[in-house]
Structures are given as C-alpha cells and as structure tokens.
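Bug #77: duplicate submission created two jobs. Keeping one. Sequence:
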Amino acid sequence: MTQDINNRLVKFNELVPSKVPFVEGKLKGHQDRLNYSIVGPGVSEDTKQNVKIAEEHGFNIGAVSAAPMNGSGLHSHTTAEVFLIFSGSWRFYWGTDGKEGEVVLNKGDVASFPTNMFRGFQNVSDENALIFVVLGENDPGVITWTPKVLEKAKESGMVLLNDNTLVDLDKNKIPDGKVALEPIKEKDLESFDHYTSEEIEKYVIRYENKDKYLKDDEHYDSNSILNYLDHFNVHNKDFEPNIDHNTGFGLTMLKGNNAHIHPYILKESEVYLCLDGEWEVTCNDQKTIIGPNDSFSSPRGSNRSLKNISNQEGSIFIIRQKNLK
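Kept job's structure:
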C-alpha cells in the first residue's frame, strides 16, 4: 500500500501549540510564548503537548513563538540544541546567572549551543517572533533548570515533579507518592561549563555573512549550499561543515532562484524546513508543496527530489540524521 506523503507534510499554521510548556510558563517574560513539537516530543514538560510526527528520526524538531521580551529561562540540555531564527531578533544569554555573555541573532542566523551549559533566550523584537529548534537524539532527555528558575516558578504555583511532570498548584495537588524536584545544589552548579561571548561565536553563523560560507553546487550552478553541521553530500559533491560540533545530525541550507536537487535515495531520516520561497517535493512519484515555516519528513529509503518553484530566491534547511564522528 502506497503511503500518502501528505501525512508527512507539516503546515506550521495547522500545528497545535502548548501555552504552558515548561515550569516557568507563568512567570513574566516567559508566559507569552507558544511551544510546538514537530518531530518528536522534544523536552516539553507539558504531558499534553501535541506531537505532529512521533516517528523516531534520531533528532527532534520544535519551534517557539514569543511576544516581545518573552522567551525561555536559563536551562541546560544533555544533547545538542541548535537554533534556527525564522523571524525577529533573539537575545541568547548564558551562565548560571545569565550574565556570562550574550549574542543577538536575526532571521536566517543559526547557533549550535554546547551541551552542559545554562542558556536562555528572549525575543527582543517589537513584534511576535519565531525560532525553530533541533535537538539531538531520539530522546533528548530532560531540562535542568537553574535553582532561581525553579524557585520563582514555585512562587507562581508551578511545580516540576521528580518524574519530570508538571503540576499547576492552582488547579491540582501533588499526587500521592510524588514529590517536587529539588533545585540543583550549589556544588553541582560548578560542574556546568562556562563560555565567553567570543567562544560562543564559534558556534554561530550569521546570515548577513552568508557569502563567506556559501558554496556553489557545480552540478547545477544556481544551487548555493551553506553547510552548518556534519558533511553534506549532494550531486556526488561533499561539503564540509562550518561549525565544528558533533550534534548527531547534519544541517544544511539550499538556496537559489532555481535551486533544486535531482532524485536521490537516503536511508537516514531527513527533514526539509522552509525559510523562504515555495518548494516542490517529489517523493516516490508523489508531489507536495512546502512554504515558509512548513516542513516535510521524507520516509527513510524513499526516492525524493526538491526544487524551488517560486519566482524568487528560496532558502530551505535540510536536516539529516548522521554523526560527525
């Protein structure tokens, strides 16, 4: 039976977001944001979070939209976290107190943050803004929050339990046999890594500097390739990564007025995520269209091709399951 590939098409405007995805969801600066799970559950603490594609890909993809001066509190992950800026300006800050350094990223920018560090992010635009997030591995683990975040969240009535479930004390009691998660101890905070702003810049590629990184696909000269993570192969040509970070997945941008990739078969998981333009995906002789903010997950082992069909330059991210080393 032929699989309808439209079941693997994710239209962003049809996604169902979580309004309180994390323990700090009631706090000022964190309450006016939405969390989306596109591929895999991500690290959401909302047990009712809607997951669009649950199939394991070797990575998770989510998104966050936030009102001005809203975003995420200081947290850490045990797996990779890569941010793709789709609209607005976002301030990323880090350290146990959030004062070790910061970078401001804009549309088209990419940042691959190291593991074992506390980081937060905030929309510093005048309007609602959108970012996508790619997390490493099928199970990206749970979030570790700074003690201050958990303490302030508890004052707001939100408690994270030791099994990583979230309880709103204004609506429910802590279930019998469950206890609130204790904030991390001061001595354990010392085990987290520290970075200067200059050091984090090594993990950032700004779109305004794209000409420094773009390479032509010599097979078809209207294709421009910006490869961020892992080796990327297209039309029998290999592109080196520009960020030295083992994330467990590859990240590449294909752009151009008439950009396309001829049919190919890939056994690993692969997702197309559209930044600009309109793209036609052909997969096992079926066709579908993805526009800005939309994504498509190609079935493993399928024969697929991709082309920009808009009358403008298009840009599309390609996320592939693969390890650097």
